[in-house]
């Protein structure tokens, strides 16, 4: 602990953000980290509280008190070593993680939490600036080959871990670019694509092979991959969007959020888009249906394109401003969160169900909705959704983005053709070693846990890598015992 009473002396300080009107001029990231002196003080706000609830709250178990302490002492190199022990990609989580660790920080019981996410980002960005992130290929190779299907954070973390263990890893990606939702989902203003490219380049230098434009289950079967490799890891994400089957859904002007977001990023990256028409919110009245991260990214994107106005409707009630009695620390706080995209201009409304869309000549002109009452509960305690009689209303609009969540992995292609077993929610089923129902085929990330977070995908990828490594070790032990005539 840098300073015993640091938490009493220093106030929480966060990164600075450009004013909203400046951010909207382009698609660039807009935050700047505090100066070194200030970051060191922030590190010393960590109380070394004995039981590190922050570490418990972090899905990858980051050893947070340890690197807070090292940063407070200016030991940046040592802090990076500690951080990399649990997190392959702090430059991603330091930008986009909702920081469950800060929700669990002991200081946050009655004070603003330690600014853990900023410190994490500072540790890794400083290391890049100072040229300390160099390719470190494994010293020897095992001769084992592994194929990872999908290059999102789960696939990348899994590939990185397995490569470090000396296995030969090839990542197969159906898109023309690597990164999964890090690249084509999360907008550039939250995560600059150069940040993803920088890490991928380092992984290539370390020996990981990336093959883009290859859809497994279509261009290449899972059986073929199994024959060519000692193990396969499926990290294909949960890309099936939830639709809204109401009258008028077929109208032009209604799009899945991911169709819009991916097109925006593809245009920025100067790569061809899968749909010809340009989805442009300039001068348009935009309604985003769904109050989560994906919806918020649509809000930020539509405002950057110059939308006339943006509204965001959520089915569930408005969350409370503060923790309720049944949602105590150190759990994730179920409170209303305002993203930087919301700050840039958005009217949010809650407890709204969309009943239909209206239009003229096939072109969207508005939506019809009704207010909901969630106050009643089913006998088992689940809130009941009830439409409020007479509360129907119409909103004139030109564009609607459906950000209603995801239903799990796309079934067509890889899943249908491989016959891999699914769980009750339609996700790929895995045992505790992350092995699927097919021997030697593993899975990680959203494909098995459902749409989640980048930090969970990294955790999953690392766990699958452990499972694969143990499986391969057992296999080679079997082989050598058989060779010696032991079996
Ligand atoms: C718009 C949006 C914004 C988000 N914002 C945040 C955020 O701010 N913070 C956060 O923590 N989380 C966020 N998330 C969630 C987070 O991005 C995901 O949980 C995470 O990316 C999951 O990682 P993954 O590797 O499992 O899957 P993905 O990132 O979805 O990657 C899967 C990859 O597999 C490829 N693939 C699929 N099938 C095949 C196949 N058959 N052959 C070859 N390749 C295949 C896909 O093309 C894709 O590239 C967001 C999600 C969305 C949709």
Ligand types: flavin-adenine dinucleotide
The fourth-level CATH homologous superfamily of the largest domain is FAD/NAD(P)-binding domain
Spatial shape: globular
What is the CATH architecture descriptor of the largest domain? 3-Layer(bba) Sandwich
What count of domains describes the coordinates?
3
- CATH top level assignment of the largest domain: Alpha Beta
- What is the C-alpha radius of gyration, as a whole number of Å? 24 Å
Instruction: Give the neighbour order of strands across the main sheet.
Output: 5-4-3-6-16
> Residue ranges: pLDDT <50 for 5 or more in a row?
none
Q: Distance N terminus to C terminus?
A: 55 Å
Structural class designation = alpha/beta
Give the proportion of residues in helices.
25-40%
Number of helices: 19
Question: CATH topology of the largest domain, what is it called?
Answer: FAD/NAD(P)-binding domain
How would you state the average pLDDT, rounded?
Answer: 96
DSSP strand content? 5-15%
Q: How many strands appear in the DSSP assignment?
A: 16
The major sheet is characterized as: 5 strands, parallel
